[in-house]
Write a structure and sequence with these properties.
15 strands; six-stranded parallel sheet; seven-stranded parallel sheet
Length: 505
């Protein structure tokens, strides 16, 4: 039967949340799917499409069937300044609710364009945060497969935490063990994501709508590979009736340096050139790369501790400094303290966006100081680099537990509490320069513990590369996903059965 429907007649519609850290893996996913011969339609807005033009155009030029469907972003109608089409360019977190209002307003536009689309949509792969795609998939009688951007470890942690929350069993203070996991994972309430540890700006109603839409999803795509967390993959599949496809690490689809350089944005050409020359000047595994993510912001007093900790470690380092609003005090300190001038022989400062995959893949990188967002975590794992963990917000403390306690390729700087986005000024210094220096020396040093973590990181990095090659677990998962969608299209009764279970008819 499956042979009656050609692969190019399948149209996978990808709808990412409009935020750089969510779009980047979706673009990688689009390339991987298109490499298998199916048609892929990426749904974005003009501002976000421009960011990815170079990478997507190059993929199309190579013969891949990728199309970009642009929707007008209703900024004004939602009470947002014009041009605020991505979470990372919002003028402040107070606009987060407006942003999700604008996301909801995209539904009618999207459905009109999907109605006219040729070939017709075969499935919707939606960021889990876009709840309206559940209703849209129902209207078009196609599967909605959600992409959450978290690991299976994290999915299980969140599932069990929700059970604890419903039973009022999360203690207000002190450490507790997350139950029913393959490993003993201890946390405190103040280290948990906002669903269990709310910020001042409460968006619980938005979270509830997203969770409700998740229940009708046909399946879940995970940016991970089975060898990384097999026990957690197995347990999560039990929760989702087996419809879990682990197809990562998605970042490894970027083979050449140009794709790595332009993945997500583009640095000025002279900076790229000088960065490569600078990295080439160092011996293998001697440089620390420090980046706290595209959304994370730290106060000036906390930045000073980070910068001085890097300096006192004695290691050459790359430090990524956020650009934009609120960064003036940090730039003033850099100038007045003479930090950049003083460290210029062994420090390289990047302002704004950094080509992270390119940097991590360079032989000179020996350690990655990271905020533990899952994209960054998996990119570090894929590069075979041990990590210095500094979680800031959301689920990042859970990712730290995975690196430090399960995988054993990370050393914590000792951060103890979530710093909610937009509320950074409320918190005191979380991590001292001494703690930064100590963690860097543990990872970069030659002592036994550091060597074990480095050896383990390299082994896992090789596993990651094998997983996406032909015969690897992620390569096979992608094959099975395409086959399932293909068979679904040929068997309408499969949809009726799915719709009855999910109450979408």
């Amino acid at each position: 039967m499956a042979s009656e429907l050609r692969l190019e007649e399948l149209n996978f519609v990808l709808i990412p949340l409009l935020a750089a850290s969510h779009i980047i893996p979706m673009v990688d996913m689009a390339k991987l799917l298109a490499q298998r011969g199916v048609t892929v339609t990426l749904v974005m807005t003009p501002f976000n499409a421009i960011r990815f033009t170079a990478v997507i155009d190059r993929a199309i030029g190579s013969g891949l069937l990728i199309r970009v469907l642009e929707l007008r972003f209703p900024a004004k109608e939602a009470g947002l300044p014009e041009g605020c089409e991505s979470v990372d360019v919002l003028p402040g977190l107070a606009y987060r609710r407006n942003f999700f209002t604008a996301i909801d307003m995209l539904q009618d536009q999207a459905e009109k364009l999907l109605q006219e689309m040729k070939p017709k949509p075969s499935c919707i792969i939606s960021d889990t945060h876009i709840a309206w795609t559940a209703e849209t998939a129902g209207k078009f009688q196609i599967p909605r497969i959600i992409f959450d951007g978290m690991s299976c470890f994290n999915q299980l942690c969140m599932h069990n935490l929700y059970i604890m929350k419903d039973q009022n069993r999360i203690p207000e203070s002190g450490h507790f063990v997350i139950p029913d996991l393959p490993d003993r994972i201890e946390v405190t309430k103040v280290q948990l994501p906002g669903a269990f540890n709310p910020a001042t700006l409460c968006v619980q109603d938005i979270r509830d709508k997203i969770r409700a839409a998740e229940t009708s999803a046909y399946g879940v795509l995970i940016n991970t590979f089975e060898g990384l967390e097999q026990r957690y993959v197995d347990e999560f599949k039990k929760l989702k009736n087996g419809r879990v496809w682990c197809i990562g690490p998605l970042s490894l689809c970027n083979k050449d340096s140009l794709d790595k350089t332009q993945r997500g944005n583009k640095a000025p050409f002279d900076e790229e050139d000088s960065l490569k020359k600078w990295l080439d000047s160092w011996q293998p595994e001697t440089v620390v790369y420090a980046c706290l993510g595209s959304l994370g912001r730290i106060t000036i007093v906390q930045f000073v501790e980070l910068a001085l900790g890097l300096e006192e470690s004695g290691c050459p380092f790359i430090l990524v400094i956020k650009a934009g609003e609120g960064q003036a005090p940090i730039e003033d300190w850099i100038t007045e303290n003479g930090f950049e001038e003083r460290t210029k022989e062994r420090g390289f400062l990047i302002r704004g966006w950094a080509p992270q995959v390119l940097i991590l893949s360079h032989p000179a990188i020996g350690g990655f100081l990271t905020h533990c967002g899952w994209n960054s975590t998996l990119e570090g794992i894929s590069a075979g680099v041990p990590m210095i963990t500094w979680p800031l917000f959301a689920e990042q403390f859970l990712n730290e537990r995975f690196l430090v306690n399960v995988l054993k390729t990370g050393i914590s700087v000792g951060s103890q509490e979530v710093v909610h986005l937009g509320e950074e000024e409320k918190y005191k210094v979380q991590v001292s320069k001494e703690e930064v220096t100590k963690a860097i020396k543990e990872v970069m040093g030659k002592e036994k513990e550091g060597n074990n973590g480095r050896k383990r990181a390299k082994e896992v990095g090789e596993m990651a590369k094998r997983s996406i090659e032909e015969g690897g677990s992620s390569h096979l998962s992608l094959t099975l996903l395409i086959k399932e969608v293909q068979e679904f299209q040929l068997n309408q009764s499969a949809y009726n059965e799915y719709a009855q279970v999910c109450n979408v008819l």
